[in-house]
């Protein structure tokens, strides 16, 4: 049921129009790579996925140049997010059990904040992407919604839940 | 929502409150709640800390090496893609990149310089190695024990009139001393004997010899034949002549060896000393020439007391040296 709802919302949410002045790589290449690295958490996987994305964009742009010239960053990020979601099982680096134990055993709050990225990766990929888009890259909800194929309300709720989870892990409020 | 906001209400609006997107009325209510609720205030501070940490995460640009990887893929080089992207590509390849951007002209200059340097440094050493190997081989050779080798007959050989040389084999290989002593002329013309001229320079193109396939162009074998009644008397004198000519006293055959019909010397001598050696041997020959034979008056081809000739050597001889074979023939 949830999947069906997602599909309906993604079709209804329009991308935010933009007008790119340069190629996608010049404009958003670094952004896409940083997104890949932030979620996959390793350079090797990020590099491999970036190359795949580059190949994909070559094909996509030959067909959808007009779409890119209209939506630019939203369209690129949506494609990148779709590829990233598919590539996480293959290229992503998950916390090992020992790392998980080390994180749980750390009772020092400043020490936990130093391991902020590790706690961030305890979140689900969707939540990570949402926090990164909204709070690292500063994208507006209107732009994030079509990328993650969720409504703005759902995004706010998910963000609230993600923050709550992070707070509980970092301040040991479980 | 009423004038008083509960903790549950605030948690629902926390995200919007952090973004500053609440409407002014709701914002006032939320702020009032935060002032009164310590727990929500602390939570708000923690949320703010989390968002600040997120915002301060470093942004990592795409490595330049990925661009090179793409270029390689575009050119059809798929070998790298199979092994994936590695830290080597990130850190080492950018260092190698400037070298790859050099023009072919620059590379050709660099290659030529390297080859020139190698040639300058290695060739003298190679030459020294070659000379040492040659010397070693020569020292190992015992000329007296070498088999007699006959060259194939020359159909169009430009041999001169052999005359007095009829008794000797034209092959530059080791002669059978007994054959020399018997004055056999069976191989004289077949071997393509050459008479050398002291007046002019030796021109290989004008003088065909038996060893056309000589592996040592220019290497020479000089043969001197002295006819005498007493080879043993001449032996020590020839030895002295050879020593004066610069032949090493350590040479194996410098004392000569006795063979049926005479004594033979076979040594390496400096090429520049050959004319002096010839003169000295000729002088010796005059001093020890055999007594005149009464039958020689009827002989249309009388044997000469001193003859010489030269031809090329098939065996390697060091540059600047020549092989000298002296045959003291018992008349």
Short note summarizing the structure:
The complex is a heterodimer of chains A (about 170) and B (about 325). By secondary structure, chain A is mostly helical.
Key structural traits:
heterodimer; A: 174 residues; mainly alpha; Arc Repressor Mutant, subunit A; 2 domains; 10 helices; B: 331 residues; alpha+beta; 3 domains; five-stranded mixed beta sheet; 11 helices; 5 strands; rod-shaped
The total count of strands of chain B amounts to 5
- Biggest pleated sheet of chain A: none
Q: Give the full name of the CATH homologous superfamily of the largest domain in chain A.
A: Winged helix-like DNA-binding domain superfamily/Winged helix DNA-binding domain
User: What is the N-to-C succession of helices and strands of chain B?
Assistant: HHHHHHHHHEHEEHEE
Structural class by secondary-structure content of chain A: mainly alpha
User: What average pLDDT do the residues of chain A reach?
Assistant: 83
Proportion of residues in helical segments of chain B? 40-55%
Distance between the termini of chain A: 30 Å
């Amino acid at each position: 049921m949830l999947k069906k709802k997602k599909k309906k919302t993604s079709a209804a949410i329009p991308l935010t129009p933009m007008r790119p002045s340069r190629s996608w790589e010049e404009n958003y290449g670094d952004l896409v790579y940083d997104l890949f690295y932030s979620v996959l958490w390793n350079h090797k996987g990020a590099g491999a996925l970036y190359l795949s994305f580059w190949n994909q964009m070559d094909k996509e742009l030959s067909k959808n140049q007009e779409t890119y010239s209209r939506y630019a960053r939203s369209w690129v990020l949506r494609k990148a997010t779709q590829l990233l979601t598919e590539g996480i099982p293959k290229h992503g680096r998950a916390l090992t059990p020992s790392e998980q134990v080390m994180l749980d055993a750390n009772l020092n709050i400043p020490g936990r904040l130093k391991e902020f990225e590790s706690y961030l990766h305890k979140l689900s990929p969707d939540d990570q992407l949402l926090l990164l888009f909204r709070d690292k890259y500063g994208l507006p909800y209107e732009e994030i919604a079509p990328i993650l194929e969720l409504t703005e309300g759902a995004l706010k709720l998910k963000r609230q839940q993600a923050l709550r989870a992070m707070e509980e892990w970092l301040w040991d409020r479980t | 929502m009423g004038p008083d906001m509960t903790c549950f209400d605030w948690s629902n609006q926390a995200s919007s409150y952090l973004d500053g997107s609440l409407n002014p009325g709701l914002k006032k209510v939320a702020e009032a709640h935060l002032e009164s609720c310590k727990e929500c205030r602390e939570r708000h501070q923690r949320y703010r800390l989390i968002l600040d940490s997120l915002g301060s995460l470093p942004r990592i640009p795409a490595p330049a090496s990925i661009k090179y990887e793409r270029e390689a893929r575009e050119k059809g080089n798929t070998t790298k893609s199979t092994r994936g992207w590695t830290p080597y590509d990130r850190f080492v390849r950018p260092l190698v990149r400037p070298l790859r951007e050099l023009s072919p002209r620059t590379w050709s200059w660099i290659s030529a310089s390297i080859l020139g340097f190698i040639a300058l440094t290695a060739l003298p050493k190679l030459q020294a190695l070659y000379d040492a190997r040659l010397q070693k081989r020569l020292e190992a050779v015992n000329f007296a024990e070498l088999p007699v080798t006959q060259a194939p007959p020359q159909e169009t050989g430009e041999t001169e009139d052999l005359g007095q040389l009829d008794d000797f084999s034209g092959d530059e290989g080791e002669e059978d001393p007994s054959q020399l002593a018997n004055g056999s002329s069976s191989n004289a013309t077949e071997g393509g004997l050459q008479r050398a001229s002291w007046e002019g320079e030796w021109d290989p193109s004008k003088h065909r010899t038996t060893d056309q396939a000589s592996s040592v162009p220019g290497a020479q074998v000089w043969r001197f034949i002295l006819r005498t009644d007493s080879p043993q008397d001449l032996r020590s004198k020839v030895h002295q002549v050879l020593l004066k000519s610069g032949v090493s006293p350590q040479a194996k055959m410098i004392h000569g060896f006795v063979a049926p019909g005479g004594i033979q010397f076979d040594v390496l001598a400096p090429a520049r000393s050959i004319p002096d050696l010839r003169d000295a041997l000729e002088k010796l020959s005059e001093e020890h020439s055999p007594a005149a034979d009464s039958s020689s008056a009827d002989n249309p081809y009388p044997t000469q007391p001193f003859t010489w000739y030269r031809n090329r050597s098939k065996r390697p001889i060091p540059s600047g040296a020549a092989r000298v074979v002296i045959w003291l023939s018992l008349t």
